[in-house]
Write a structure and sequence with these properties.
By secondary structure, this protein is α+β, with helices and mostly antiparallel strands. Helix content is about 30%, strand content about 35%. It has three helices and five strands, in the order E-H-H-H-E-E-E-E. It has helices spanning about 10-20, 35-40, 40-50; strands at about 10, 55-60, 65-70, 80-85, 90-100. Strands 1-5-4-3-2 form a five-stranded mixed beta sheet. It is elongated. The termini are far apart.
């Protein structure tokens, strides 16, 4: 059973990866920018980590504090996000891979 909603933060490395994948501006054919993703797709990803962390897939068999989510997005085909439960009970999202189109 899932625990109560947790606080979710995003590490600067996550933003660096997102910028490298999507870029600061929309593409010539309307491809999403980093800001588009942050406003459209990240909220539901953060909600999934906040509400269902214990139900997400473990990244490592011997570490329950690392979990990942594979999610379909509104603007991207799919995103894989890794988060870690830290000592204060919050979750830090620190890695993302995207299949953008």
């Amino acid at each position: 059973m899932s625990s109560a909603r947790r606080v979710v933060t995003v590490d600067s490395h996550f933003f660096d990866e997102l910028d490298a994948i999507l870029g600061p501006t929309r593409g010539p054919n309307g491809e999403p920018s980093t800001t588009d993703f942050l406003l459209s797709d990240l909220p539901s990803i953060a909600d999934a980590f906040a509400e269902r962390f214990d139900d997400l897939y473990p990244v490592y068999p011997d570490r329950d504090d690392y979990r990942f989510l594979v999610a379909a997005g509104r603007l991207v085909k799919a995103a894989v996000v890794i988060g870690q439960l830290v000592s204060d009970g919050s979750i830090v999202l620190f890695e993302i891979e995207i299949d953008p189109y």
